[in-house]
Design a protein that fits this description.
Blueprint (H helix, E strand, L loop, with lengths): L17 H18 L19 H12 L5 E3 H8 L3 H13 L3 E2 L4 E4 L1 H7 L3 H12 L3 H12 L3 E3 H11 L5 H14 L3 E4 L4 E4 L2 H9 L1
Antiparallel strand pairs: 1-3, 2-3, 4-6, 5-6
C-alpha cells in the first residue's frame, strides 16, 4: 500500500467546496504517483515491457497535445478529452514517454520537441523516426538482437518463450501482438503467421551488402 487516504468529509458532500476539491486533487496525485511514477535516477538499462497500446492511440495523444496550450495537460483531463479511462490513458502516456515523445512531470503530460517533430512529418518519415526510437527501447532492442543473432529470423514460439521468462505476469501473446503491430508499422519486423516466424525487415538486403 503506497498511502492511506482518510476521507473525513461529512455527508452530504458539496462537490465544489474547497475541501472536496482538495481531496480530489490529493487522490489524483496518489493515483498519478502510482501509475506514472517519477523516473528513477540514471541506472543501467533494464528490460521493460512496452505498453500494450496501439500506434493510433499514441499518435492520437500527440495530436491532441498539439491542440492544448503549451502542448501539455493533466492525465485525467487528457483521459476525459479522448474518452478513455485513466488506466488506458496512463498506458498510452507510458508508451509515448518510452519513445521520447512526452515527459511526465508529476501528473502533467508534456509534449517534447521530438513529439512535435514526429507529428510534423509525413507518413514515411514518421515511420523512419518511429523505427529509430523503437531500436532504442530495451525490449525492441532485445528482439532485434535475437533476430540478428539468428540470421534475421526466429520462430515466433522462441520470442513468446523469451517474453514469458522476462515478464511472467504479463500475457506473452498480448505483448507479442504489440511488438508485431509496432514493428510492422515502423517497417522494422514482421510476423509470418503461416511459417510461424518473426523476421527483421531489411535484413536480407543488409546481408547482401555485407557479403559484397
Amino acid at each position: 500500500m503506497r498511502e492511506e487516504l482518510v476521507n473525513s468529509l461529512p455527508y452530504p458532500r458539496v462537490e465544489r467546496s474547497p475541501e472536496f476539491e482538495q481531496m480530489v486533487d490529493r487522490l489524483h496525485a496518489i493515483l498519478t504517483a502510482t501509475l506514472l511514477p517519477e523516473p528513477a535516477p540514471a541506472a543501467p538499462q533494464r528490460l521493460v515491457p512496452f505498453p500494450r497500446v496501439h500506434v493510433s492511440e499514441v499518435t492520437g495523444l500527440l495530436d491532441h497535445l498539439l491542440t492544448r496550450p503549451e502542448g501539455k495537460g493533466p492525465v485525467f483531463e487528457l483521459a476525459e478529452d479522448l474518452g478513455v479511462d485513466y488506466d488506458r490513458m496512463s498506458a498510452v502516456v507510458r508508451a509515448a514517454e518510452q519513445l521520447g515523445w512526452v515527459t511526465t512531470p508529476g501528473e502533467i503530460v508534456q509534449l517534447t520537441q521530438g513529439g512535435r517533430e514526429v507529428m510534423a512529418m509525413d507518413d514515411a518519415a514518421r515511420k523512419d523516426a518511429t523505427r529509430a526510437r523503437l531500436g532504442k527501447q530495451p525490449l525492441f532492442a532485445r528482439l532485434i538482437t535475437m533476430l540478428k543473432e539468428s540470421d534475421g529470423s526466429v520462430e515466433a514460439e522462441e520470442v513468446l518463450a523469451d517474453l514469458t521468462i522476462y515478464f511472467p505476469f504479463i500475457t506473452a501473446e498480448s505483448l507479442f501482438a504489440t511488438l508485431v503491430e509496432w514493428g510492422r508499422y515502423a517497417e522494422l519486423v514482421d510476423h509470418d503467421t503461416i511459417a510461424g516466424r518473426v523476421s527483421l525487415l531489411g535484413w536480407e538486403s543488409a546481408a547482401e551488402v555485407r557479403s559484397d
